[in-house]
Amino acid sequence: MVFLTNAKKLKTIRIYLKMKQEDLVDENITRGLISMIETGKREISNNVALKIYNKFEQKAKLLDIELKIDSGFLLRSPSEDAELYCLKKLNEINKDTDIKEIIEIADKFNLLKINVMAYAKLGEFFFYRKDYNQAFVNYNYAIDIFKKIK
Q1: Do 86 and 28 lie in a common domain?
Q2: Are 131 and 88 members of one domain?
Q3: Distance (Å, rounded) from C-alpha 101 to C-alpha 26?
Q4: Contact assessment for residue 33 and residue 48, using Cβ atoms and an 8 Å cutoff
Q5: pLDDT tens per residue across span 138-150
Q6: Domain span holding position 20
Q7: Which of 45, 100, 125, 133 gives 20 to 30 Å between its CA and that of 18?
């Protein structure tokens, strides 16, 4: 799973909606600012993100496209996106391979709370399959991470 930076998100959505940088220009937003945000030279502010989001929403309606993002999408870091993705996946899990994918993502982004939840869920999964040794090992991993978090 790939989680994009703010710059990549902005550019990807803009291109998906067949918009040019000029289409995002406003009285407070210049084409230069959009370019600097897309190249990662400037961070996007709350005010600018909200205005750009509204322009994306308007264009999506014109194209009859359902845009499945919220106003905070452009402001979230890849780590925050990974955390939201993992939390959503943890609620929908039905296989141990899904949990292992979540653990890999949590390790990559150092999401300790997600790791705890995933190992506890994996322990629960093995417990219900009556594989008590594996359940114990995974519960123990969860406890060790809790100790690190304090």
Answers
A1: no
A2: yes
A3: 41
A4: yes
A5: 999 999 999 988 7
A6: 6-62
A7: 45
